[in-house]
Amino acid sequence: MTAVLGDLSVRLENPTVKWVAAGAAATGGLYLAVKYSWFRKNPFYVFSGKTGAMAKDLVDSGINSYNKFFDQEDGKGVGDRILSTPDFVNKFYSLITDFYEYGWGESFHFAAREVGESFEASIIRQETAIAETIGLKPGMKALDIGCGVGGPMRNIVKATGGHVTGITINEYQVGRCKKLNKEAGVSDLTEIVQGNFMDLSKVFKANTFDGAYAIEAACHASNTAALYKEVFHVLKPGALFSSYEWLRTSKYDKNNKIHVDVVDGIAEGNALPEVRTIEECIAAAKEAGFEVQYTFDRATTGGVPWQAAMKSARRAAYLTHIMTGVLEFIRFAPKGTQAVHTMLLKAAVNLEKGGDLGIFSPMYLIVMRKPTA
Question: DSSP characters for 274-289?
Answer without folding.
Answer: --EEHHHHHHHHHHHT
